[in-house]
Structure formats: C-alpha cells, structure tokens
Amino acid sequence: KTPKGLSQISLVLNSSLDDILFIGHSGVLIEGQDQVYFVEKLSFQEPYQLLAFKSRLELNQYLMEKYGNYYDKASEARPFIFENNRPMKGFKNLDQ
Questions:
Q1: CA 12, CA 1: separation in Å to the nearest integer?
Q2: Strand ranges for 1-94 from DSSP E
Q3: How far is the CA of 7 from the CAs of 11, 15, 16, 29, 89, in angstroms?
Q4: How confident is the model at residue 2 (pLDDT cuts 50, 70, 90)?
Q5: Torsion sign, CA atoms 86, 15, 44, 35
Q6: Which strand (E) or helix (H) includes residue 63?
Q7: Running DSSP on this structure, what letter comes out for residue 91?
Q8: Region 29-52: what's the mean pLDDT?
Q9: Nearest-5° angle of CA 37, CA 56, CA 39?
Q10: What is the pLDDT of residues 67-77, one digit of tens each?
Q11: Cβ distance 85 to 9 under 8 Å?
Q12: Which among 40, 37, 46 is positioned nearest to 6, based on CA atoms?
C-alpha cells in the first residue's frame, strides 16, 4: 500500500514498432499543503530533481510538453499519465 500523500506517476507511451504500451518516464508525487512536488530522475548521468507545481494540472502540462510529443500521431496512441494504478486525477492531453 502506498503511504498517504505519495503516489507513483507514470507516463505511458505506445510503440507501434513493437505494438506495446510501456512506461516512458516515472517519478514520485508528494502532496504538500498547497503544492504538489514531483521527484524525477531524467537520466543516468543527471541527479534526481524535485519540482514544485501548484496542481496536478501543472504537473500534467509539464509531463505532456516534455514527453507527450514522442508519438506518431498516425499510428500510435497518445501518451497518458497514470497515478499509481489509475489515470491521474485531472489528466488532459494538451490538444484537448
């Protein structure tokens, strides 16, 4: 069971090459009193980073702007964000 106030955030991508869905990026969401914090590791060479957002919607926007364009619009599903084992509260594709 996940401790209260912590969630695993996963950005799910689609690969038409292998016809699979896979987690393309992940991190930990920490709920603060008036902000949410996201801890992520960008690459093996870079340290972990902690980002602060006013809401999940801002986190959604950050993830979709950074990673959401890595799909073939003609043959792949749009990326989506999971929080633990469900779609993230308030998830939106940026073109909606």
A1: 21
A2: 6-15, 20-31, 36-41, 48-53, 80-83, 86-87
A3: 13, 25, 29, 5, 11
A4: low
A5: negative
A6: helix 56-67
A7: -
A8: 94
A9: 25
A10: 876 666 666 67
A11: no
A12: 37
Q: How many CB atoms lie within 10 A of CB 27?
A: 22
The structure tokens listed for 77 are 């599903």
Q: What is the mean pLDDT of residues 40-58?
A: 93
d(CA 81, CA 10): 6
pLDDT of 71 reads: 64
Evaluate whether 28 touches 7 at the Cβ level (below 8 Å).
yes
Site of tokens 């950005």: 11
State the CB neighbour count (10 A cutoff) for residue 10: 20
Q: Find all residues with CB under 8 Å of 91, minimum gap 6, and list them.
A: 60, 80, 81
Whether the pTM exceeds 0.90: the reply is: no
